[in-house]
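Lab notebook, page 48
Experiment: co-folding of the full assembly
Goal: obtain a model of how the components sit together before planning crosslinking
Operator: M.T.
Materials (sequences as entered):
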Amino acid sequence: KAGVTQTPRYLIKTRGQQVTLSCSPISGHRSVSWYQQTPGQGLQFLFEYFSETQRNKGNFPGRFSGRQFSNSRSEMNVSTLELGDSALYLCASSLRTGGYTEAFFGQGTRLTVV
Amino acid sequence: DQQVKQNSPSLSVQEGRISILNCDYTNSMFDYFLWYKKYPAEGPTFLISISSIKDKNEDGRFTVFLNKSAKHLSLHIVPSQPGDSAVYFCAAIYNQGGKLIFGQGTELSVKP
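Observation: model returned without errors.
Model output:
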């Protein structure tokens, strides 16, 4: 079974630009969550999508948005990039059909804003 | 407000000995806990989890202990191997939510 796939793996953008990151979950998983990892703040939750609907949202500005498609693939968009947005962005998928299920992470997209 | 805390940024252990990684939490609503292992520039890998209705869960060399009254959990790795060297994160969930709240991580170094 293929794992969680994130593309691209690395990205360099300029301040003020926007960026779109992509995540393909494990087959059969309907929940996709996004996390930001920085040295200072650790791993922080951005949002969760389930069946194309946003279920949870973390404390990030509106410049961070996401969506999920009918095949459960998800995209995350960051507009008007700032230097502080440089981070490893991680996507996680899980079954979430009832009860607790573990989240499985992709390898991440390393975003550098210059 | 750091709801999940890993107070030891690093831990060094000799190969073959026990590694004990600790995690404290403040939110009594948390009812499911997980441990992840992470190498640099990679995503976290799920290791083991425990529900708040249990006090111990074991999987091979990994055992997680939960002390609800102390709001404390620990991960024991026995015996430790050099390949276990990585950053370990504990995480918590409440109300069957999809939001994982992570600690800051503990970097484990297992020396041959």
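Interpretation: The interface with chain A takes residues 32, 34, 36, 41-46, 49, 51, 89, 91, 93, 96-105 of chain B (CB under 8 Å).
Next step: discuss with group before ordering constructs.
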